[in-house]
């Protein structure tokens, strides 16, 4: 994992906040299957960490929580980036031992595993190939959906065993269902300051800062015009973007307001919503 993509002067996803139907069930999954540590816990909410200090994921059980709605905007998946291929091998072996249902893909820039939490919230767990090997042409990075070399990954192992998420784990990116791409591209580009690095046909965009392969993915695979999920539905509550300075964040707030988007200040963060009503915290 190359830290440069997750530090100044870049903006990137810092944390994800999910709604779940049953906190006890979700906590068991996130501890035993994914390997998070609990940072803080109340009756209806838990904050989870990989290093015991930094919050990466919050899960919350709303009143009258309802199952995930189909064909709505919201979370496609959030992605946990592991520091190296050995860590991917360790968690892959762990998943195989638990008989977890997995998807997988070689994206050229990265090697990825996919699974769902008990509520159907999508999770990607991946490791990057060195950025020196990524192929760029006209400011777009080559990505694919090729079969994963699982045997090659498992061959990284000697006798190492899995013991939770490594401390260096970060939220590598978030991928969202949106209702359309034109205004969405304007919001994330001219508003939030992310650059397009890959267009996947007419249905998906990948955006980043600092020439990462993507900090944000956006797709219309739930249907053009897909409505937002209800307040009680499980899924994404919000995600948090971190900017390198107050000045950088103020510029983004001004850009969003100039484009006609509402930005509210809540304590030391600003909160806004994209055109599909995905909620975003802007932090420093």
From TrEMBL:
Residue intervals of the VOC domain: 12-128, 170-284
Signal sequence extent: none
GO molecular function, one term: metal ion binding
Keywords associated with the record: Metal-binding
Alphabetized InterPro entries for the sequence: Glyas_Bleomycin-R_OHBP_Dase (IPR029068), Glyas_Fos-R_dOase_dom (IPR004360), Glyoxalase_1_CS (IPR018146), VOC_core (IPR037523)
Superkingdom of source: Bacteria
Pfam families: Glyoxalase
PROSITE patterns: GLYOXALASE_I_1, VOC
Protein known as: Glyoxalase
